[in-house]
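SAMPLE LOG
Freezer: B-3
Tube label: C17
Construct: single chain, 173 aa
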Amino acid sequence: MTSPKPMMDLPMDTKNHSCSCGGPAEFVEAQCPTCGEKGARVKVGTVRYHLHTELRADATDKIYGLCLSPDCNVAWYAQDGSHHFTTSQTDTPIWAKADAAPVMACYCNEITKEMVADAVSKKGLRGMEEIILHYRDEMKSMCAVKNPMGRCCTDAFEAMIAEALKDYLACNC
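STRUCTURE (predicted):
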């Protein structure tokens, strides 16, 4: 049995008035070294948490960007350009990447995009909280660590609900 991952001394309280666990992502100034897109700003503790164990020490106290480009293999990159980590070096599938499997809607509660689609089409559920509580006894919130962006998944989760509802209505089920 493996021991749980350390939480990397990140504050769990990332709440704001519009979300139960974090606000909108800020972007880093530098662009991804591979695709040239600007990435979402991520704390080093979040990066360390998701990396393979042997690579965690390589994530130094720098500002990191999470590359959100679906076809780019860079996961996080140092804003100063000194180094980056690829999706093959992480233990976590990053929802924004084309090869993510599974695509996570909520990392804290382990809810996948497929689960969201099933809840929308088969159970008629429409809200994030009701979908999570359909699958789990309680809602957990540890976004600063569990989500590769280090922020709340609300926006991505709601986009998945909207996509599932559109697909459901389009099939006239």
